[in-house]
Amino acid sequence: MSDFKHEHEAFLAGHNGTSFLEIGALTSIPCIGCFSREIILIFMLDLDGISKRRRFLLDFLTLVMPSAIAATLMSNHIVYICAFLLAVSLLAYWIGLKRNVMDLHSLHMANLSEQKLCIVWYRSIVNLMTAIAILAVDFPIFPRRLAKSETYGFGGMDNGVGFFVIANAIVSPEARGKHCQIPVFIQLKHSFKGCIPIMLLGFVRLIAVKGTDYHEHVTEYGVHWNFFFTLAALRLMSTLLYCLICVDQSMLIGLAITVLQQLLLSLCGLSNYIINGSEGTGSRVGIFDANREGILSIPGYLAIYLFGVAIGQFFFEKRFVF
């Protein structure tokens, strides 16, 4: 078990990521898949009469399968997958023209002030891509350049936590304009109560990993820290922050935190400490030093959360459709 653990940790470690262009192309595939799905539904299928089985099959063919093969079997041909999905969309549109289904009054048009389909799609895509990456990363079929980078670099899986943070932020009470309607004490109370299940999940994961001697990527979060602790800390810190600032300042404060974090990393030696530790040898002395990656990443994730709130404000802003 110990030999297998070390081999697997070596298999997952030491990667430097890939280019921003490839990551952009990879993340665009489920987006194009969503577009293809909607085009097919509108111009080729009867929206009212389509069965759940056919809808499930359509979802699998346009969303799940392209995303899965792009991250595995056809990771070197992502552009071709994008082109194929766009070609399918154009074909569906052309067939729709031939069938004379272009009467816009007969289409199911989303009301901008009521339905936020783009948010639903985004959160669905995040969950889908996360599931694919987590299940595939342990196997050689998943390209190592798409795994999490060790120190510097940008891999496909490095997007995961940031995407989840934004997914939470865009539907948060602050983004939906419900923050100011609740007294501060009640906000803090609700935030703390909401953190309890997340913290419990964090401790359950910690105990399970340590108890079974399961392989783990220590340089990702640290010895004891994990994704759930980060989410819990973000929820508490964001609630406290919004007790001090106005929600409309989210973008500005997020930019300020981003600049400050980068200055600390680049000019004040914070990046060297994160990589090499307090003794400069990569050792982990004390609870903070042992979990320095996870703890010191919180300001960056807080900035991402603030950006997500600003985006959510834009989507939930009342609009009039003429």
From TrEMBL:
Protein known as: Phosphatidylinositol-glycan biosynthesis class W protein
Transmembrane region(s): 20-44, 56-72, 78-97, 118-139, 151-171, 192-211, 223-245, 252-275, 295-316
GO biological process: one example: GPI anchor biosynthetic process
Membrane-topology descriptor: Multi-pass membrane protein
Signal peptide: none
Main location, first listed in the record: membrane
Keyword Transmembrane: yes
